[in-house]
Design brief:
The structure is a single chain. The chain has 2 domains: 137 residues, Clp, N-terminal domain (Double Clp-N motif), CATH 1.10.1780; 63 residues, no CATH class. The chain is globular and about 50 Å long. A hairpin with a 6-residue loop joins strand 6 and strand 7. By secondary structure, the protein is mostly helical.
């Protein structure tokens, strides 16, 4: 499981434990911090964050269940920003450092608390995340087999796409696309007897709307 997948798993577990119907920015950020922590300590460059100071029981692990927890609009926006950050350095997979960097401009909630507690600025947070990204190749998540197949497979002319292929076609993060599916904004089909879903190429236009011209 990659760091990004671990972060999502932790975020879901946190939202579930808090009795929330949606994953908010705080739950997602906690998920990211837990995914990159070692023994309850997060080291982002020279910045060291103790999860115990945030009242996080870092020894707990997700229970492996898959509750129906949706992503809030704010979280979808963070995923979209992470995708833009990843694309700013050329085409490539969104990694957990891109998601962490997307929190730099947040001033409220958990990120705001971290800024006040540790004296973090937008620039110092991005610098700390950049240092973390270059620490060790072992901290760079590996593509899942499904994602690798989706990136390698030709999509031209195919009527049904994997979530990864559909997200790539729209230029958004795959978690954003899955949020569209969960909310009913984007129709999807499930393969008989399997958990894998497919999206009809023709249905992708349903999440697009005309941009009204501004005066």
């Amino acid at each position: 499981m990659s760091n990004l997948e671990q972060a999502a798993s932790f975020a879901i577990a946190t939202a579930k434990n808090r009795g929330l119907a949606e994953i908010g920015p705080d739950e997602l950020l906690l998920g990211c911090l837990r995914a990159v922590s070692r023994f309850g300590v997060v080291a982002l460059g020279s910045l060291v964050i103790d999860l115990e100071e945030l009242d996080v029981v870092w020894l707990d692990r997700p229970d492996g269940s898959a509750p129906k927890v949706a992503y809030s609009k704010a979280v979808v926006g963070i995923f979209d920003l992470a995708t833009q950050i990843a694309l700013s350095n050329g085409p490539g997979q969104v990694r957990i450092e891109h998601l962490l960097a997307a929190f730099a401009s947040e001033e409220s909630g958990l990120m705001g608390d971290l800024k006040r507690r540790y004296g973090i600025t937008n620039a110092s947070w991005r610098a700390a995340v950049a240092a973390f990204a270059g620490q060790s190749p072992s901290q760079v998540p590996v593509q899942s087999q499904e994602t690798a197949r989706a990136m390698d497979a030709p999509t031209t002319g195919r009527d049904f796409l994997t979530p990864e292929e559909a997200a790539e076609a729209l230029g958004i993060h795959v978690q954003t696309l899955r949020g569209y599916v969960r909310s009913g904004k984007l129709p999807a089909l499930r393969l008989a007897g399997e958990r894998a879903i497919r999206i009809r190429r023709a249905d992708l236009e349903q999440v697009l709307e005309p941009l009204a011209p501004q005066n």
